[in-house]
Amino acid sequence: PQTLNAQGIVQGHQHITIQQLTSTQAAPDAQVFAFFKGLNDQALDGRTLAVNVPAGTFKTDGLYRICSMSGGDGHAPTIMPVAQRGAQDDCIRINVQNAAQ
To answer: Which domain of life does the protein's organism represent (predicted)?
Structure first.
């Protein structure tokens, strides 16, 4: 079950995942990823989490997405209090060139 601290903040952690997007017509396979990391270290300033992506992660040129995933302590997706709100997870897309160099 999801738990909250005294301030009402979800107790849990975030993950970062990187996937190559090989199709513009279909979602990527959730079990295939170039990088996955749980952000388990303490936030740098009490608010900001960071992760280093190792050299060689991007093996081929192309479009990739980098996504954050929030989860409770039990790894389930977070349950948010209302439907009309900004998203708790996010993705960006990047175009990798010269990956093999």
So the answer is: Eukaryota
Q: What span, in angstroms and rounded, lies between the C-alpha atoms of 26 and 88?
A: 23
Identify the domain containing residue 56 by its residue range: 12-96
Q: Any idea which residue has 């995942």 for tokens?
A: 17
pTM for the full model? 0.84
In this structure, what DSSP letter does residue 34 have? S
Confirm whether 40 is domain-assigned: yes
How many domains in the chain? 1
Max intra-chain CA distance, the chain: 49
CA angle 49, 101, 15 (to 5 degrees): 20
Residue pLDDT, tens place only, 29-60: 999 999 999 998 888 888 889 999 999 999 99
